[in-house]
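Standup notes, structure subgroup. Blocker cleared on the zinc ion input:
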Amino acid sequence: MFDPQLENDHNEEARVSRRRIFLASSASALGAVLLWSWRKPWSLEAKASTGAVEKVTIVEFSDAGQRLKTVQVPKVVKTDDEWRKQLSPGVYSITRQADTEYAFSGEYWDNHEKGLYRCVCCANAMFSSETKFESGTGWPSFWAPIAKENVRELRDTAFGEVRTAVSCTLCDAHLGHVFDDGPDPTGLRYCMNSASLEFIAAPAKN
Ligand SMILES: [Zn+2]
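Run returned:
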């Protein structure tokens, strides 16, 4: 049930006062540096919660998969309750809490149709069927995102493993992880949760 945004709204004051107490009681310059490093991401998020919503650059695509234009748009920021209302419990836990669906359980690992995969939370274009390949893992796998601007990659140390988590640039939905054992031409394997994606079939050609 972790929403950095909500957490931030509720706890910012407490954290600020904790920080003051810590700074006041610590004679160690090193301590202050460590604290600063730890606090940095939260400070960035604090900006978003005070009304100045962060803007991000993404590339728009038509449902037919045609690259349209690069745009700068405000991030999609919703409260935990709003995401819960919009998403089913399973989709919520995967996209907003970085859960993982069971292998071979999702809708798209065996989908061979041509089309576009959008973010299930905000409809940002994520992947094209043109880069989808058979990884044998039971999760839909791609060797590249549809546009590098549309996804963010973050070091993930959950479960004692160092992995690279992939999320939607526009709404921070957790999509899956990227590994370096993929096929040519990139050698990358974007191992995604079906639940994080919505497939839009390409229109039939005449
Ligand atoms: Zn999204």
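Discussed briefly. Helices lie at 4-25, 29-49, 80-86, 89-97.
Next: hand off to the docking folks.
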